[in-house]
Design goal:
single chain, 166 residues, mainly alpha, Cytochrome Bc1 Complex, Chain D, domain 2, 2 strands
Length: 166
Amino acid sequence: MSTKIFALAILAGGLVACGGGDAAPADDATVDAPAAAPAVASAGATEYTNNCSVCHQADGNGMPGAFPPLAGSTIVNAPSPDQMIMIVLKGLQGPVTVNGVEYNGIMTPFQDILTDEQIASILTYERASFGNTGSAVTAEQVAAIRAQYADKTDSWTIESLEAAMP
């Protein structure tokens, strides 16, 4: 196999793994739905399992050295969900420190994969699960951020993300 084909195979495998797709959770994977807004929580848990748990794991603790945890993350628990929305829509690349540990990878942008409703339900689930205490996210909030950054063609870095915040 040529080096180029091998590299493309590795890249494709990584994108599928972190892009979620229709991967089913492991039989022993359990995802606790938050008590508030059961219908949204249930949809969010399912969407999380299908799109996020491969990298961030069913328990939200990520994969050491590879994918950061959502549990205890300052971005997940921020008063505003705007940065989370921005990351999910456009992706994130480069070094980021979460819970005192540095990660340096690439998160798939989901702007062309998930609807505003799907993103809102996932983020609501994440902000209310894994010991997190963030508020719910609405499809309207996602749509507003999507429109605000519609012309952005690249993924965020932590520096560009922070610079974009008021």
